[in-house]
Amino acid sequence: MKRFKHLEATSVDEAAAALQQYDSAHVIGGGSDLMGCLKDNLWMESPEAIINLKTIPGLDGIRQDEDGLHLGALVTLTRIAESDVVRNTWPGLAEAARKTGSPLLRNIGTIAGNICQQNRCWYYRYPDKLGGRIDCVRKGGKRCLAVPGDHRYHSIFGAVKKCIAVNPSDTAPALVALDALVETNKRTIPIDEFFSAERGAVSTVLEHEEIVTGISVPHPGAAGRSAFRKIALRQSIDFALVNCAAALTLDNGKIATVRICLNGVHNNPYRCIEAEEYLAGQPLTRESATQAGELALAKAKPLLFNTYKVPMAKAVVADTLMDCLKQA
Ligand SMILES: Cc1cc2nc3c(=O)[nH]c(=O)nc-3n(C[C@H](O)[C@H](O)[C@H](O)COP(=O)(O)OP(=O)(O)OC[C@H]3O[C@@H](n4cnc5c(N)ncnc54)[C@H](O)[C@@H]3O)c2cc1C
Ligand code: SF4
Fold this sequence. Notes:
By secondary structure, the protein is an alpha+beta fold. It has twelve helices and twelve strands. The chain has helices at about 10-20, 35-40, 75-80, 85-90, 90-100, 105-110, 110-115, 130, 170-175, 275-280, 285-295, 310-325; strands at about 5-10, 25-30, 50, 60-65, 70, 180-185, 190, 210-220, 225-230, 240-250, 255-265, 270. Strand 4 and strand 5 form a beta hairpin. The chain binds flavin-adenine dinucleotide (FAD) and iron/sulfur cluster. Flavin-adenine dinucleotide binds near residues 32 and 206.
């Protein structure tokens, strides 16, 4: 790992000013993703400075009011998973946090770090020290190694800028399903506009001096339900092969509103619009949930080694919807 300055910010303004001062600086929350990126020498430019956000007071609150849930950027995944407030009213989000990584990772990993983490691809993340740098498209090179190589964990919805590395976040689909807002030091960003693999080697629309300060999730109302499911090879600690979150309201037994989001299947979290349109006004039954799963994957374009993800994702969509039905 190359040497860098470690700055302990005491306010968001101070952290933003430090980002402005250094062209190649990164903020750090829990560091569970960032430290791996540094060790594996992921970036073309090694950062001159790392700016610690954990030294900023007031960014670690969980608060509920009449508008909904307000999470500070530094709230850890453990606290979200264990919060009665979140579990009672936003169970899909609590479950997503509970299924992230391992207990140790959840203890240090923050909600902001979880949605800002880099996309996953084993060529991109190949440890520099093991055999040298693999300069794929995402690292500024000319070709993608995963498309002609081993892409079993990659996108089934095509490439973005020739890259098929997936967004791996567990909480991102829950926040998309729950229609969250991401608050930064500059603006409020609807979650549907937050993820942007289209920008190249970053996963979000955040600008260089932009810092996530919190996340707001609207109140789902008395009829609101939400659920999250994840399929991973190892249950104890692993990234999702496929995960899914759904949030819906029922009115007289029929679906009034619904949002469904898959992750681990594309460069950005993948909102299942066709499935949502089909479900609106339908009763929620195993048949309608199964049909929603079919529609959610209608545009899938799997590659040779990841076709298995298509039936897996269809089933996860259907099962996540049925989990919503089980809620009282
Ligand atoms: C072995 C292992 C297993 C993992 N398993 C999972 C898993 O199952 N599911 C999953 O979703 N993730 C997983 N992760 C990834 C990671 O640990 C989590 O996503 C964690 O929540 C990241 O949070 P953090 O606070 O540690 O982020 P950090 O590492 O501190 O930051 C991650 C990125 O976000 C940026 N960032 C952090 N905070 C802010 C902010 N407030 N504003 C702007 N940018 C910010 C950083 O600059 C960095 O680029 C795993 C990681 C490891 C090493
Ligand atoms: S999928 Fe993306 S990150 Fe992986 S090798 Fe291809 S260009 Fe690089």
